Amino acid sequence: MTTTDDDRGGGVAQPGPRVLALDLGTSSARALVLSAEDAAPVPGALARYKISPTYATGGSATLDLHEYVEGLLGCLDELQQNGHLDDIGAIVVSSQWHSIVALDSRGAPQTPVITWADTRSVDLDLGSSFDEHAFHARTGSWLHRLYWTRRIPWLLSEGSPAGFAGLPDLVLERLTGERVTSVSIASGTGTLDLARGVYDEEALEIAGAKTELLPAIVPSGWTGSLSAEFGRRWPGLVGVPVHPPTGDGAASNVGTGGYDETTAAVTVGTSAAVRVVHPIGDAPELPWELWRYRVDDERAVTGMAFSAAGNLHAWLTGVLQLASEEPTTVEIGSSRVIAIPFQAGTRPPATVPSGSGVYFGLSFDDTGEDLLAASLQGASLEIDLGLRMLDTLFGRELSVVLGGGGIDASAWWRRCLTATFARPTTVCAEAEVGARGAAAVALGLCPAPGGEHLEPVDAEVARVADLRPRYAALRELAAQASTI
């Protein structure tokens, strides 16, 4: 059974005092309970199932769908056993973007969950008549392996699928019996006409798929209900509305406090991104270097993503076996070493492949902390490139909020980002920004960051400004060398 805003008399049903949030990540599936008033986590009401993606030769990076869903259901069982599934008024979902599963004629999966990290796809030769710039402006995406425009032709070449869906679509189907998707999740497939909120005809033609092969897109006001099976399993959730999922990038922005066009949210997790949420109506023309997806029926999110962030920090501290995860002996902007953080390559439209990270200016008196500081500085300068593009796009110096696990883990990196941006920043006090954002989108909340406020230090800003031209020149050299 489903309902929409119109079915409920034009208003969103008032939730109970708590919200159940499902967070569908790449490295874990989680269920947690939040306050419906401000989307703050309820202490102790968090269950997590660790996910281990399978990597293999040929570029595959997949998740076992059955294991993933059962792990998520086990998280709800754990919350139930600990008395956390009472007084729930809404169920919301935050999910990774870009995943795809091939389905047979009965709707059963033919493949594992193919994640954004999977490099398998097909090359497309669309001829000189294809206008990729117009396509990008309309869909917010490029013809890149991240998107279904290249995934679906590859899957069709490998077998005979009768349909396609993403991980959140199949989780939603398992819970409610209905295979539908949200405008937010659909936008991450690269097949959505952003302005109209429907599948794009040219994108489907390129993919070789018809609309009926994909999950139906439901409005943001849609809700489903848990199936009878799960009503018996979790009696406190009977009749509780299940809201459409929100893509994790959009959810993280809103959850961090960046929910309008005055504020850029910088989130640092395994990877990093800088994004701005804004109305979809009268949206500014999209620059080629930026992507754009949807938050919900009324809002879009525009930004840039970066492949090296928390993964870079974790790798380097492990390789160097540093006693501290902070380069506390190195002043921000002072390192002679320049690190170009292309270890995992670049996101589209740039084409630098993985394995292209470079250090310039090494000497025998450099320490592990120097290398760590240079790497975090390089990652900060990459994010700054995107921030300055967004400043230009929205015609103002944007306010900045910082959030994510990498932000929580490193006070030095927070200060480095603040100096690199050369403006004040506010740190989001809440680590669960994805779940918090999904609740805020579903319930119409505007959560405040609530964390520390950082002012840039003049001396640090000046040092970063001095190294910026050298970094830009060496970055170009590294990008050119990656093609040799």
Question: How would you portray this structure in words?
Answer:
This protein has 484 residues and is an alpha+beta fold. It has two domains: 18-244, ATPase, nucleotide binding domain (Nucleotidyltransferase, domain 5, 2-Layer Sandwich), CATH 3.30.420; 249-481, Nucleotidyltransferase, domain 5, CATH 3.30.420. It has 14 helices and 23 strands. It has helices spanning 65-81, 132-139, 148-158, 167-176, 183-187, 201-207, 228-233, 248-256, 310-320, 368-394, 405-409, 411-421, 433-443, 458-481, and strands at 18-24, 28-35, 41-50, 54-56, 60-63, 88-95, 101-103, 113-114, 163-165, 180-182, 192-193, 198-199, 216-218, 246-247, 263-268, 272-279, 291-294, 299-306, 338-340, 358-360, 399-403, 425-428, 450-454. The strands form seven sheets. The chain has a seven-stranded mixed β-sheet with strand order 17-18-16-15-21-22-23, with helices on both faces. Strands 3-2-1-6-14 form a five-stranded mixed β-sheet. The chain has a three-stranded antiparallel β-sheet with strand order 4-5-8. It is globular. The N and C termini lie far apart (57 Å). Mean pLDDT is 93; it is low at 1-14.
